[in-house]
Sequence to fold (237 residues):
Amino acid sequence: QSALTQPASVSGSPGQSITISCTGTTSDIGGYNYVSWYQQHPGKAPKLMIYDVSNRPSGVSNRFSGSKSGNTASLTISGLQAEDEGDYYCSSFTSSSTRVFGTGTKVTVL
Amino acid sequence: EVQLVESGGGLVQPGRSLRLSCAASGFTFDDYAIHWVRQAPGKGLEWVSGISWNSGSIGYADSVKGRFTISRDNAKNSLYLQMNSLRVEDTALYYCAKVGYCGGDSCRTTPGSFEIWGQGTMVTVSS
Fold:
């Protein structure tokens, strides 16, 4: 099972919007609506930000939104803030009933 | 408070074995699947293995299949990972993660997302 493909880095100025893509195949992202996104700050455990493609867990800012088209999922952060800096990972359920993570994207707030 | 606490990590020589544990509290343990996810130093997240609420469904990443065995003891609210034939490339921080947010359905029947994570236990494989 190959890792999902994410851009290595994305940056933006405070207040701007950025979008992180996550590309898989018909055996994972394209086949199921079980795509989730995680934020990780240095030295910390990952935190769930989006589940089932586009749903936000309670307590997660509505500046975070998710979507999917075909084999590609996307995470958009609007009104970028300094606290949004960190690493972001997508994840999907697969046709083998396993899970796969993306390669990870480092978000930098300029 | 929902909590997961991993233990059992350490320094081990290549080819040897290690058993990780994950102690759960604050929720009904046998209502949820639990997974192991690892992160090598400076690298990304890698899903390792997952087990359903009743141990009826188990999966492994290709990188550990045949070497690692996941198990759980619902009476003890605990998850385990038996790691045999360890390799240098198994060096990583190992997290256990509870599924949640199962879209309104029971988390016994839907995959869910990794809702709650422990703080991890470090495994170093080196001679």
About this structure: The CA atoms of residues 18 and 77 of chain A lie 5 Å apart. Chain A touches chain B at residues 1, 3, 32, 34, 36, 38, 40, 45-48, 51-52, 55, 57, 87, 89, 91, 93, 96-104 (CB under 8 Å). The first strand of chain A starts at residue 9 and ends at 12. Strands of chain A lie at 9-12, 18-23, 35-40, 47-50, 64-69, 72-77, 86-93, 99-101, 105-109.
